[in-house]
Write a structure and sequence with these properties.
The structure holds two protein chains of two kinds. By secondary structure, chain A is of the alpha/beta class. Chain A is 37% helix and 17% strand. Chain A contains eleven helices and ten strands. Chain A has helices spanning 3-7, 10-17, 40-45, 61-68, 95-106, 140-156, 174-193, 208-211, 234-241, 252-257, 270-281; strands at 28-30, 37-39, 75-77, 81-83, 112-119, 122-129, 160-166, 198-206, 220-223, 263-264. Chain B is of the alpha/beta class. Chain B is 48% helix and 16% strand. In chain B, strands 1, 2, 3, 4, 5, 6, 7 and 8 form an eight-stranded mixed β-sheet that branches. In chain B, α10 packs across α11 (241-248). Chain B is globular and about 75 Å long. The chains are: A alpha/beta, B alpha/beta. At the A-B interface, β4, α6, α7, α8 and α9 of A face α7, α8, α9, α10 and α11 of B. β4 (81-83) of chain A pairs antiparallel with β9 (316-318) of chain B.
Chain lengths: 288, 322
């Protein structure tokens, strides 16, 4: 018995030992930025942006597509493409086991979901990364789904929008994953040849092989507020240069200031802004 | 220059030291020991052949980073004439970790671009250990566009631990520079031949390695991440690098089997640094073959084939339509 328990009168002691009135799980959430306590439904109806401080919580790929695309006429692209463990990669876990675990926890088959649809009646193909699937890492499947998305754009004269959220290349696929950088970026040359826009939206986080390939090569590059965006991770840089990183380093606002991106757009305005950008680029009339 | 030996080469190093000693003794000895020296030399060669016949991927990565390994400018000196080095990205600086310029190969004008490491401490720092910053990639892109304008092939030499993870590099758009370089190489209207001569380290390597033909020297490596980096992330310990090297599949033979490179260029016994001129001759021969095979192609053919090749990268399976 600790000194505190000895000190407490028996009644209080007993009460402390008991579980307090059960609060249903997942009803409330605490904002990681302002520590404000939020009702989960409020947060969800606000595009997962904290109504108090504007902090952008991460979004799943499906939630992102759901929020963005009109309810009618959605077709998923490339869902039939799934991973194989070519290298029989094994560290503390097998790659095949990691894939299974990721599929279980996210309900996705890989880290990219591509969908054809429309944003406020403007037809598009949208690709969205699922960060919870192995850190949104890019392997063969992500690359192939991206390219199939581009292919649909070419077939049907559609613009492409991509929401990046990734730690980079998927190590477990070795050089195959590195080469996805070249594959995805090369696909963009075909969109360009047909004057079809590619808008790249960088969300938290966009790093490594994804940031250093198609994500930075958008005709318009947008970032969400405070998103971490960069090539090398902050820890690696700190270890290399052995100095403290500047305040706000590799955040969206920092990149805007350095001239690396076109604009920062609040998630709640993103739909309208994308429609504007797409119709302006494609010389189509404004959408009300 | 005195040959330096890697840890796993210690048995060879001991033999070589003995040979050296005997040579020294022989100079002022009445007894002829040249037979003994020859015998030891043969033994050393046999031992080297044996060791190099079964190098582990981790050992190969040591050879790829050997301090005496020939670097880009060593190959340039052996392979080309009239190398006119060109500097700068025209907007910020010259990055000494990537070199490039016009040169003549046989009779033909070519553009040469490659990562460059330093030999001594001073040069290593100047060359930033072969780790480019955005300026390096932007210089490379500028030279590639120049090659395109004057319709000459581009030859790239890859030898970098990776792009430099520094504050300034991030501030000046490392990601964009690499991404843009991939884009430029994908659509460039002239032949591109890429040769991994040492370390093919991640995005920093790929940024100048999108070729119509990609070749690797026998003991070069090409990888998405260094074995140490991979080990410290996945095993939480850099000590496990040998295992990471094994499983990542970074050697020329493995990558050839996987269909990710086109050709392996043989190295002299004991690695390119043992006989740099022989190594360079092998590279020259391979480059001659490859350039010849690419010259007949029209621009459209060239760019289309490169595109299809890029689209073919990746291993996955397709489920039946649901």
């Amino acid at each position: 018995m600790s000194w505190l328990q000895k000190l407490l009168p028996p009644k209080i002691n007993r009460a402390a030992g008991h579980k307090r009135m059960a609060v249903p799980e997942g009803l409330w959430s605490k904002c990681p930025s302002c520590s404000g306590v939020l009702y989960v439904t409020d947060l969800e109806s606000n595009a997962n942006v904290c109504p108090k401080c504007g902090y952008h919580n991460r979004l799943s790929a499906r939630a992102r597509l759901d929020m963005l695309l009109d309810a009618e006429g959605r077709f998923e692209i490339g869902a039939e493409v799934v991973s194989v463990d070519t290298l029989k990669f094994k560290d503390s876990k097998r790659y095949s086991d990691r894939l299974e675990a990721a599929a279980e926890s996210t309900g996705e088959t890989d880290a990219l979901v591509v969908m054809q649809g429309a944003i406020k009646t403007v037809p598009v193909v949208v690709a969205a990364f699922e960060f919870e699937f192995m850190g949104g890492s890019m392997g063969s499947v992500v690359g192939e789904r991206f390219v199939r998305g581009v292919h649909v754009c070419l077939e049907q004269d559609l613009p492409l929008v991509c929401f990046a959220a990734s730690g980079g290349a998927r190590m477990q696929e070795g050089l195959f994953s590195l080469l996805q950088m070249a594959k995805t970026t090369a696909a963009l040359t075909r969109l360009a040849a047909r004057k079809l826009p590619f808008i790249s939206v960088l969300t938290d986080p966009t790093m490594g092989g994804v940031s250093a390939s198609f994500a930075m090569i958008g005709d318009v590059v947008i970032a969400e507020p405070r998103a971490l965006i960069g090539f090398a991770g902050p820890r690696v840089i700190e270890q290399t240069v052995r100095e403290k990183l500047p305040e706000g380093f590799q955040r969206a606002e920092f990149l805007l200031d350095k001239g690396a991106i076109d604009m920062i757009v609040d998630r709640r305005q993103l739909r309208d802004r994308l429609v504007s950008l797409l119709t302006l680029l494609m010389k189509q009339p404004a959408v009300a | 220059m005195k040959l330096s030996f890697l840890d796993f080469e210690q048995p060879i190093a001991e033999l070589e030291a003995k040979i050296e000693e005997l040579r020294y003794v022989q100079d002022d000895s009445a007894v002829d020991i040249s037979d003994e020296i020859q015998r030891l030399q043969k033994k050393s060669l046999a031992l080297t052949k044996e060791l190099y016949g079964k190098l582990t991927p981790w050992q190969v990565s040591q050879v790829a980073r050997h301090p005496q390994r020939p670097y880009t400018l060593d190959y340039v000196a052996e392979l080309f004439t009239e190398f006119e080095e060109m500097h700068g990205d025209r907007s910020y600086a010259d990055d000494y970790s990537i070199v490039g310029g016009l040169a003549r190969f046989g009779g033909q004008s070519v553009m040469v671009i490659g990562h460059q490491k330093g030999r001594d401490t001073k040069e290593k720092i100047l060359r930033n250990f072969g780790m480019p910053r955005p300026e390096g990639y932007r210089k490379a892109m500028r030279l590639m566009r120049l090659a395109e304008k004057f319709a000459m092939p581009v030859v790239t030499f890859i030898d970098t631990p990776g792009a430099y993870p520094g504050i300034g590099a991030e501030e000046r758009g490392q990601s964009e520079a690499i991404g843009r370089s991939l884009y430029v190489m994908a659509e460039l209207k002239v032949p591109i031949v890429s040769i991994v001569i040492g370390e093919g380290g991640s995005g920093g390597a790929l940024a100048v390695a999108v070729g119509d033909v990609v070749m690797m020297l026998q003991y070069a490596t090409y990888s998405v991440i260094s074995p140490e980096g991979c080990a410290s992330i996945l095993w939480k310990s850099a000590e496990r690098a040998p295992e990471a090297a094994e499983t990542l599949g970074i050697t020329s033979s493995r990558l050839k089997t996987l269909g990710l490179i086109d050709r392996i260029i043989a190295e002299p016994v004991g690695g390119a640094h043992r006989e740099p001129v022989v190594a360079a001759q092998n590279v020259k021969k391979a480059l001659q073959d490859v350039l010849k095979s690419l010259t007949g192609k029209s621009t459209a053919e060239l760019v289309d084939e490169r595109f299809e090749r890029l689209m073919g990268y990746g291993k996955f399976k397709e489920l039946a339509a649901r």
